[in-house]
Amino acid sequence: MQRMAVAAVVLLALACTPEKAAKPLSEPGETLYDVRGAVVGRDAGDNTLRVDHEAIPGYMEAMVMDYPVRGAAVASLPPDKSRISAKLHVTGERIWLTDVKRIP
Predict the structure, then answer these.
(1) Overall domain count for the chain
(2) Whole-number Å distance between alpha carbons of 51 and 83
(3) Angle at Cα 23 formed by Cα 66 and Cα 94, nearest 5°?
(4) Is 3 inside any structural domain?
(5) Is 28 in contact with 20 (CB distance < 8 Å)?
């Protein structure tokens, strides 16, 4: 009987543990940029894409850079070596990509 009580307490504690909340796609005060480039690699553990992107007018020169992705798992995005377009979200503290799509 005591084991059942312990098991019930453990299950209750797990059920009440808040899930890791998904980060919002947008944040107040962000600036959006259009990005075009090619997928060089990915890290599913960190949900990041390594992108060899063109210059982003008004923000950044062309370069290869790792970007966190929000709103999609990187494993579901276009394969490596694909040309892509995406939205780059920039705040004073963070950057991330959304709306990653394969382009011709």
Answers:
(1) 1
(2) 9
(3) 45
(4) no
(5) no
**Measured CA distances, 15 to 5, 18, 19, 39, 92 (Å):** 15, 8, 9, 38, 36
Domain carrying residue 81: 24-102
Q: Which residues lie closer than 8 Å to 27 by C-beta, 6 or more apart?
A: 89, 91, 94
The tens-digit pLDDT sequence of the chain (104 residues) is 555 444 444 444 444 434 346 788 888 889 999 999 999 999 999 999 999 999 999 999 999 999 999 999 999 999 999 999 999 999 988 999 999 999 99
Q: Give the Cα-Cα-Cα angle 85, 27, 87 (nearest 5 degrees).
A: 5
**Angle in degrees, CA 48, 35, 100, rounded to 5:** 50
The two tokens of residue 42 are 């990915």
Q: Strand 83-90 relative to strand 95-102: parallel, antiparallel, unpaired?
A: antiparallel
Is 81 inside a domain boundary? Answer: yes
